[in-house]
Write a structure and sequence with these properties.
With about 160 residues, this protein is of the alpha+beta class. The protein is built from 3 helices and 7 strands. The strands form 2 sheets. It has a 4-stranded antiparallel β-sheet. The protein has a 3-stranded antiparallel β-sheet with strand order 1-2-3. A hairpin with a 4-residue loop joins strand 4 and strand 5. It starts with 6 loop residues before the first strand and ends with a helix.
């Protein structure tokens, strides 16, 4: 795995689906199409807020799964020094019972603070693009404003010089 210049975008939701695109410089752009069966963007915000709260020092891996009907994408995020080691696994069948992963579709490292900033920036972009009301109407989940406020606060505290 190489340290990546990471970027991330959250596409506007449409008809129960949302695309989240990950761009590590170490590989090709990866677009994950996810279903409203789980709140994929909310999972991402929760993970970033926890990473920021802990300033990138995770005591245990963070894992979450996004549904892709019938498959799924599983994220595994671990600490690797000052960076995060992120792996994304694809499952060809996720319900009624998840099979073994079909394949690892991405593995990269990214500085923890960059990951957190990118998640916050991606949410700000999609909110600015369509607004909270349309996001909720099209996605069936509200924008996780409380989690985003926590994420922003934790990033600001992380950036403060010691003293």
């Amino acid at each position: 795995m190489s340290v990546a210049k990471f970027s991330l975008t959250i596409g506007p939701p449409h008809a129960g689906w949302i695309n989240i695109t990950v761009r590590p410089s170490s590989g090709d752009e990866l677009t994950l199409r996810t279903s409203y069966l789980s709140d994929a963007p909310g999972d991402l915000a929760n993970a970033a807020a926890e990473i920021a709260r802990l300033r990138g020092r995770l005591p245990e891996p963070i894992r979450f799964t996004w549904q892709d009907e019938p498959g799924a994408w599983e994220w595994m995020i671990e600490t690797a020094g000052d960076a995060l080691c992120i792996r994304i696994l694809e499952y060809s069948i996720a319900f009624p019972h998840r099979t073994a992963p079909s394949r690892e579709i991405a593995a990269f490292e990214v500085p923890a603070i960059r990951f957190c900033r990118c998640v916050l920036s991606a949410f700000h972009a999609v909110i600015q693009s369509i607004g909270e009301v349309q996001y909720h109407a099209k996605w069936r989940y509200a924008v996780p404003m409380g989690t985003l406020a926590k994420l922003q606060r934790c990033i600001a505290e992380w950036n403060e010089p010691p003293g």
